[in-house]
């Protein structure tokens, strides 16, 4: 890098990334750095390096160089290999003269590999491994490596290591300014004996050219120089590759497996685990009778027990399942603080009534007091509350002590912000927070994630924030309380025991924990499944955040600190002994471990065995579908076993005999193989020699079946048709017979039999089948061949031979009564017996009625129904985690049939007509997959022609016989019958009660042509029918003093409109002065910005409201009656958060008069909002454009220039005392955002652009009033918290 300073070590070590042109010897190809060429002219921008001879080192071993070499740049050890943040144990420089490279023309002259003389550094021997033609023999580059001689001499299994920071350079001996130096770092071990540069220097650079001097001198060659420092390995894993790292053996602890994005959870669980008092309390929760998959305490006990006793990383799947989480939740990162609180709340509820009750409060709960203390009068208002953790600011605070000081900083309430003290009026006061009691364990949440009001988004704060190993907090604790007197003199000295770290930004990253498990000052890094020792610099300096050289901001920093009080450390961190674990937990977990160990052993030994599935006549007789069995049907008694691959076939036969309990050797084993049409049938060619090993049997036959299992059929009762003997001219074949009874729609197995295909006919089997199924031997039968599910072929002539109908070994024939022939025979018999014609016709009619009742009258229709079977899971729309109801249906079922089946399954048959179905999605492969969220499901149109088949992709059928398609259909139970709904429309309706609070009414169904009065009647009927609480039961407005600042819980039936912040409304109850509204009710709609959009009149039809728009209904439409003695403007008052386009709540109206002042106007607003003077100080009053575009952009044409400019000029003329530099008086921006009102404003001129008004005139303004509520800190809005974490167990 000509013209630049030598880079610092931080700049040289490039995070383990390798230059694209660099390759290494063997597998040691990481941590290789880019070439750094030191030329003769090093002229940095601000400083220079004085040339110093290369030999200025006392410990260096040297070879004689050329006489009077030209001095170049400074090449001492500190310049070439600076040391930052590490300790060395030894260092040296070694130079080795190498013959001229370009004077040699053959490989023989240079050789393929050379070794330098050995030298000693740090008590170890070293040498340079040099490849003149490159370690790959290409000749394009030379390769050189630093080799450890001691590494070669280490015995197998040795843990010897040596960490070396080094640089290797090629230097011209005549002019050391001509050089190339490369840097690397390496951990030398028995397995990694050398490290260096596979593409060290190119041949072109060695030879030189007219533009650049040669590195190799023709007479003296060149020098290979090594600068090296042996680094002290404080933790024992510096530059470790972790390929064979054993956390338990190296540290005594094990990690937790990451399920996808559960590193945040792992770091917190490790911290809680090492809080041994908490661990003991968790063990003490009674879980003897808990269900393993639903008990959070039991799952946590399992995690803690395994962390304490396992030698490998511990899984957390059972724990997350107990939360009610699915796989998707495990791949979503959540807020650690919220997760900790939800987990502890769950455990506290389970600890009640047990000896563990109160343990969490004892450990983590402290107390703080929020107070307002008057300065001039003896009055104080305070509230003491518990805290589980403390959220401390990072931004603006350099260290932890500064964050605590900021937390308890006192605010003075004076001027317009005076405090209303009961009995004393408005008073100057001090407002603040003070801690009254600290818990034994402090969880300090550093606010690394904050809301940026300029960006309107959450951001991560990466500022530097230091935290100490020990901290004393007495100064932040209130010394005494009036109720309790002086507090005990417990020293509030805390020791740091945990640092939870986040690497990354707001949108993603990685979590890890640095923990001090015991009293001794020894730290470990817990990074999911890996545990390593940690140095002090890793715990502190590396996680303070802030700047770090050329890399700018550090994105790895602490976000949670765990401090333990000095006096409580012996108790909180006491050892957990075996006696602390209940016996029932030991037994349960020992049994689980034995089970999993057995499964693990089976998996490890699986390659030694052949899995075998054995089919018998018992399993076939219970199968009702296609083929002989369904191996996926676990209800069928199919035997599963395994035999060693080296076992012989004869041994396997004895194993089968023993497994099935056979008394003799009269059984035959058939192989089940998959035919080309994907059916599974016995293979007649399964003839295997007794000494054949099972591995060969499996390899030969398993590829012809469904899977890699060896599947066989064991025939235990071989028989032949009519005791036929094998003819010399034909070979017997074995057929399988079934019998179908259409009267009961059942399929039965009739056994297998050997037949002579050339001489025996299909009708010869009738007697055998009738005997097997209990029919008279003269019963007429018909036969069908099972070819494949969609091909059931009828045998055209029962008198054909088996060979004539092309049957072979393993084929299946299905018989059923020939009911037409049976009816004919009976009628002929009746006629022969002299029965009358009326009797014969009556029999014929009765017989036909019986046939008509048959669901599937013949074999093809039975198998068609079997092929169309599907398993559908029905879930209530919105209940994504619900298991639902699973029903077996037919693809041919219609909408009403499905709804009827579902209604009966729900136990409410009368709801069938009100069930609305939503379809599921299909994957690209054609197989149906449930939708991830029910909100994405599309409604199925209620139609008499719709069938379930239409929910599947066209042509979708199971890949194999007997498989069933599956899917999920969401449903809703509507208020009205579906047929009735076709004549009506649903209107999404909110009820607006007193105080502007809104209750979701749901969809109100009315005729499509209904007028407003009919709609209101339906709303009232719905409220009465569902017993909804409205109006007087609503309670105070959210901005009233009695209401907390917290948002309403999502589970509360009362919600806020548009934006979850604050409602502005009013207690005015006068009706809207327009055309009469039915029963003084107002029906209106709002714009997306929460401005009034439309007020519906009594004569309006609901058809004018778009289907997607919501309607608001209220008795309390806030439109006060206005005196008519002077002109007035009825201004709409809206509420917003931060941005005027982000409106919320229900707007109201307020008159503005020409003589109104800021004080009179805002007083009316405050009274309507029922706010105190103190509360109203947190409300900003703005003038805003009334009409906004849907995107919140500029005002519409005609609403901008004249009125706003006139307002500004009028404002200046009216407010002579106004200062131009007053930051509160901002000009109105012409982007539709408005500006905040100030006391000096002339409101009439600001809102109304003209003075030429007639008496009693109502003026329409193009502006509205905006109310913005500030949070506790005076800012425009608070932070969002994101999605909630829910633990269901």
Describe this protein's structure:
This protein is α+β, with helices and mostly antiparallel strands. Helix content is 21%, strand content 27%. It has 31 helices and 53 strands. The strands form twelve sheets. Strands 12, 17, 20, 23, 24, 25, 26 and 27 form an eight-stranded mixed β-sheet that branches. Strands 44-43-42-47-45-46 form a six-stranded mixed β-sheet, with helices on one face. Helix 22 runs antiparallel to helix 23. The chain is flat, with a radius of gyration of 43 Å. The two termini are 62 Å apart. Residues 1-69, 327-331, 921-932, 1032-1079, 1118-1123, 1189-1232 and 1271-1289 have low confidence and may be disordered.
Summarize it.
The chain has 1289 residues and is α+β, with helices and mostly antiparallel strands. It has 31 helices and 53 strands. A hairpin with a 5-residue loop joins β30 and β31.
Top keywords for this entry?
about 1300 residues, eight-stranded mixed beta sheet, six-stranded mixed beta sheet, about 20% helix, alpha+beta, 53 strands, disordered N terminus, single chain, 31 helices
- The computed structural class is alpha+beta
Number of helices: 31
Largest sheet: 8 strands, mixed
Calculate the mean pLDDT score and round it: 76
Unreliable parts: 1-69, 327-331, 921-932, 1032-1079, 1118-1123, 1189-1232, 1271-1289
